[in-house]
Design a protein that fits this description.
Blueprint lengths: L21 E5 L10 E6 L10 H16 L5 E6 L28 H10 L5 E5 L3 E2 L1 H4 L6 E5 L4 E2 L13 H9 L1 H10 L2 E2 L12 E3 L2 H18 L2 H12 L5 H16 L2 H12 L9 H4 L24
Parallel strand pairs: 2-3, 3-4, 4-6, 5-7, 6-9
Antiparallel strand pairs: 1-2, 7-8
Family: Belongs to the enoyl-CoA hydratase/isomerase family.
InterPro entries: ClpP/crotonase-like_dom_sf (IPR029045), ECH/Chromodomain_protein (IPR051053), Enoyl-CoA_hydra/iso (IPR001753), Enoyl-CoA_hydra_C (IPR014748)
Pfam family, one: ECH_1
């Protein structure tokens, strides 16, 4: 049985939220309150944005806020400096891992990735520079990935004596097919984003890093202005939470669609179309979700709590 989650305090401005190794800004930057597009930036440029436990905690904190903040419609994820993310910080190694039973361990990259995956707001990953390992797997739950043609990307785990992490064995083959995924994980090589080995992992690529980020922001703005957040989220969940057969899927999407026909976002979308104007979508999961939502069984993937050390 899942326990009740702690309440989340939504900040007036995300630019005032204190985080380590991660920066959050509005678009446009400096807006006094949260904007429809929020930019999350990996912020260790001196270390090529190599992943830290502080980043994991920052993502779990900020994505939980973005998930329930109705002011925010789209998240753009990018990196500071020349590289998007060099993967795990190998200089720190794994010495900081807590001693625990093998089956109780929860991969820190996986916790970051699931924070993105479970957020109802879509993420556009703007990989303005090269990325390997965890730098790649953290982008897999994003709805859109945009790469730089001058950069190299790869799943280099076998070249470091490691296996896949961050739930990437779930995401990667579903995004690019088993054949491409097996090639990337067997060779551990790095390739430009338009390499055939990536399939359509990168939906768009651009020559310059600035173009990557600019396009991501442009696309995020368009989505925020034109797309129903609830319809978009439910559509993505119908893909990821697919029951597995055509018949079962028919039952699930029929129930969701039937509800959406008479939902207020549908009526607003049709009205805006005929009136030739931008829609003003206001439906929320809390107030307007289909009765069948969620149609999957929630999984408690947390660790068992431990007793705190007694105070002497």
């Amino acid at each position: 049985m899942l326990s009740d989650p702690d309440s989340i305090d939504i900040p007036k401005s995300y630019e005032t939220v204190s985080l380590t190794d991660v920066n959050v800004s509005h678009y446009p930057i400096g807006a006094p309150e949260a904007t429809p597009v929020v930019v999350v930036t990996l912020n260790r440029p001196g270390k090529n944005n190599a992943f830290t436990l502080e980043m994991m905690h920052a993502f779990e904190k900020i994505y939980a806020m973005l998930d329930v903040d109705e002011r925010v419609k789209v998240v753009v994820l990018t990196g500071a400096g020349k590289m998007f993310c060099a993967g795990a910080d190998l200089e720190r190694g794994f010495s900081g891992l807590e001693k625990e039973r093998n089956k109780d361990h929860r991969d820190s990259g996986g916790r970051l990735t699931l924070a993105i995956h479970r957020c109802r707001k879509p993420t556009i990953a703007a990989l303005q520079g090269s990325a390997v390992g965890l730098g790649m797997t953290m982008t897999l739950p994003a709805a859109i990935r945009i790469g730089c043609q001058k950069s190299k990307y790869g799943f280099v785990f076998p070249r470091r004596g490691l296996t896949m992490e961050s739930s990437s064995s779930f995401f990667l083959p579903r995004l690019i097919g088993f054949s491409n995924a097996l090639y990337l994980l067997t060779t551990g090589g790095t390739f430009p984003p338009n390499s055939p080995h990536f399939g359509t992992l990168f939906q768009e690529t651009y020559p310059e890093p600035e173009q990557v980020v600019s396009r991501a922001l442009e696309l995020a703005k368009e989505i925020a202005e034109s797309v129903s957040p609830m319809a978009s989220y439910l559509s993505r969940e119908l893909i990821w939470r697919n029951p597995g057969t055509a018949e079962e899927t028919h039952l699930v999407d029929s129930a969701v669609l039937y509800h959406m026909f008479s939902a207020r976002d549908s009526m607003e979308g049709v009205k805006a179309f005929f009136e030739k104007r931008q829609p003003k979508f206001k439906a929320t999961l809390e107030n307007d979700a289909p009765p069948s939502f969620p149609w999957w069984s929630e999984i408690d993937f947390g660790r068992k709590p431990k007793a705190s050390k007694p105070k002497l």
